[in-house]
Specification:
Layout (H helix, E strand, L loop, with lengths): L10 H9 L7 H5 L24 H18 L18 H16 L8 E3 L4 E4 L7 E9 L3 H9 L3 E8 L11 H13 L2 E3 L4 E3 L5 E5 L13 E7 L9 E8 L8 E9 L25 E10 L13 E10 L1
Antiparallel strand pairs: 1-11, 2-11, 3-10, 3-12, 4-5, 4-11, 5-6, 7-8, 8-9, 9-10
């Protein structure tokens, strides 16, 4: 016998487990299509008719589906065995508790999910030359429809942007002291990952002038939200900063595109030597070498329980402006 303790589950109890659209949420709401922070795009389960018997197949289908999402979110669920025809179906409280736990995982953006695939760079935009004022890049990521976009972030998906320096600013080809400082500032941001409800940076240090890291996809609107402004903390370069903002093209539930703006702003004083004895002297000692912004997509995959990979349909370089 699979389940013999407790009361046999009733049709309305099973239907609540499957289809409840308010707390405690049912499977179809938090793992199916869902709304806002709920929904993973998994197959909807059927309810039973009033007065009908819950079959072993129906019950097992719910338990298997729960285990699959539990595996993806790395949630710890009650250990169960499958039932066979004629078994009594009980332990209602444990199922209810596990469904609530899974719903909370999805609402939290599947923060512990590890079945994720990091793409190669989808977009890479470099400054047109060495520069001394600014390099600003906008990259967009678009999904097939609004539901897929929600499922991507609810399942633990992230949009990653990464800035680095690929060239030197000195006239003779070497690195300037400002180059070195910008390398440090870029590393302090590191991998900048926009998730469901929050954003993270892999780097550390420098001056966190604006801290909007508590913002994720579900917090964005159609105008840019500044998520971070990180300012250099070493003199004489303390007017230099990186600012990263993001927006979506409509309200969550209708949006299909997220756009990220990565701004490198050089506000420190510049020196240029154009006369006198400049032999062996770098005539542009305060220029920044070529900088680059790359965008990656970190997608939920099907290796630990989801029915299919969830990823974007297109990316684009919206703008790339260098002010020298």
């Amino acid at each position: 016998m699979g389940y013999v303790a407790g009361e046999t589950i009733q049709d309305d109890e099973f239907n609540a487990f499957v289809n409840n659209s308010s707390s405690p949420f049912g499977w179809n709401h938090f793992a199916g299509t869902g709304l806002t922070v709920y929904g993973l795009g998994q197959t909807h389960l059927a309810t039973v008719g009033a007065g009908d018997t819950v079959t072993a197949s129906q019950w097992n289908g719910l338990l298997t589906a729960m285990d699959n999402v539990g595996n993806h979110t790395n949630d710890s669920l009650t250990a169960r065995t499958q039932v066979t025809t004629g078994d009594s179906i009980a332990i209602k409280a444990a199922v209810a508790a596990d469904l609530a736990s899974l719903a909370a995982e999805v609402a939290g953006g599947s923060a512990s999910a590890s079945a994720l695939t990091t793409s190669s760079a989808k977009q890479a935009s470099s400054s047109s030359s060495a520069w001394s004022q600014s390099h600003v890049v906008e990259h967009s990521v678009t999904f097939a429809n609004a539901n897929t976009m929600r499922w991507f972030f609810n399942g633990g998906g992230k949009i990653r942007v990464l800035g680095d320096r690929t060239g030197n600013g000195a006239t003779g080809g070497g690195a300037t002291s400002k180059d070195t400082d910008w390398t440090t500032l870029l590393a302090a941001v590191g991998n900048f990952d926009i998730g469901s409800l929050a954003t993270t940076r892999s780097g550390s240090g420098e001056t966190l002038t604006t801290n909007g890291l508590s913002n994720g996809f579900h917090d964005l609107g159609t105008g840019y939200t500044v998520i971070i402004k990180l300012t250099a903390d070493t003199s004489p370069y303390t007017a230099n900063y990186i600012q990263i903002s993001a927006k979506i093209n409509a309200a969550v539930g209708s949006a299909v595109t997220i756009t990220v703006k990565y701004e490198l702003i050089d506000g420190s004083a510049d020196n240029t030597y154009t006369s006198g004895n400049t032999s062996g002297v770098d005539v542009t000692p305060d220029r920044v070498g070529v900088t680059r912004v790359q965008t990656f997509v970190i997608s939920p995959n099907s290796t630990q329980g989801l029915s299919a990979n969830i990823t974007e349909s297109a990316t684009a370089a919206v703008s790339n402006t260098t002010v020298t």
